[in-house]
Amino acid sequence: MISKKTRILCGLLACAGFLMTAVSYPLLPEQIPTNWQVDGSVAYSPKIQIWLLYGMMPLFAVLFDILPRIDPRKNHYRKFALYYGRFCIFLEIFLLILLGIILSESFYPGRLSVGRIIMVLLGILLMWLGNMMPKLKSNYYMGIKTPWTLSDDDIWLRTHRLGGKTMFAAGAMLLIFGRFLATKRGMPLALSGILLAAFLPALMSYVWWKQKQN
Questions:
Q1: Domain match, 87 and 164 both
Q2: Distance CA 77, CA 7 (A)
């Protein structure tokens, strides 16, 4: 469960996003950038979509609070409540930064190297998640949820220890080589690294489960 302090801070971050959006909206051009391609092209959408992008902040703030309460293993959250709260705050900050990037590029197109910034932010997020994953306890909401991790706490622990290493490595790759990976040639490598970081622990959870059955 999240603490009262975390709940308040997530709410304040969502309010900050609302103020940024509400103040900027009347001044925004009719079309705003919402998607940056690796070849340098930018896709535009009607400016009203900025509210949809902002809407993820209060939505996640509410879900962060509600989902653990309805999780069949909700008692497990007490064992990693500190890290869960930090994750909630971290993701709200991450979304607020993305909202700021879109608003900045709407008013001053081309001022930011958006592809590289996104790579850096994603790298930091993956490294942070990698550091947190070994601390997660079995639940139906966060983590690597396969039939084999959910059926055995030992396999859950081993899988998330491995997942922490692979996620941290993928994040470090994006952070260190972000300048190259934010290109048409580098993007397939970046996506492959992220998919491998997620797939390998899931695969090993089955391998470890099979070994225990034998």
A1: no
A2: 15
